[in-house]
Amino acid sequence: MKRSAAQRRTVPRARGHAPGGQPGHSSAALTGAEFVTLLKREQVADPHNAELRAGRAVRARPLTGQAAGVLQRLEQLLVQACAGTALQVRARPLVRLGPADLWRPHLGLMPAREVSTIHASGATTEAASSRLIVLVGRGEVGPERLAGYAAAGVGELWSVSLCAGWTVRYRSPWAGRYQSRTLWYPGEGVPVAALSGAPVEALEEGFQPAGLFAGGPDCGGRP
Fold first, then answer.
1. How confident is the model at residue 123, as a pLDDT?
2. What is the CATH number of domain 65-201?
3. Whole-number Å distance between alpha carbons of 177 and 112
4. Interior CA angle at 124 toward 100 and 173, to 5°?
5. What pLDDT sits at residue 4?
6. Where are the domains of the chain?
């Protein structure tokens, strides 16, 4: 029996996932290979934002409002900084951290040979091949996610904290932790190690958080 288009784009409940890529009640988990197969078959809702965490397919929250503008500006600056190099910027790359973990950071700086032109094809990049990972949010990246990237060998990670109004640059991963942590304020150029220290302004001078996430609480916690 043929399945409807809606059914084809939903992770099957039998694999422990509810429609829309949210975890279900089953204890079954997906491997990275199985998740990639589902992506290639277009059986995952919103494939551009779908990721695998500890064997569970979830939907990474897209940025909206001012946050989306900050991300777009930063992506453009990184693209300009990479001109003439063997590196390229990818939005929402599928980064392999382990056999059951395929995460989607907001931006990734990757060797050009590993960049796929089709985001939803299931193409993955090994975490250790990533030259820079960028995460944008209200606050700093959580310790669990930070430890995951460090353990997987991501050499440089930027956590753009919009409510605090600064960027934290993490470097030198060792034993599941980053040994170097530096703070950069709006208007300051953050050096990109993979680009010989070329500075990129993660947050523009005078940045003020306002209306960061449409439909969600602002930095003051108001609904």
1. 79
2. 3.90.1570.10
3. 27
4. 70
5. 42
6. 5-59, 65-201
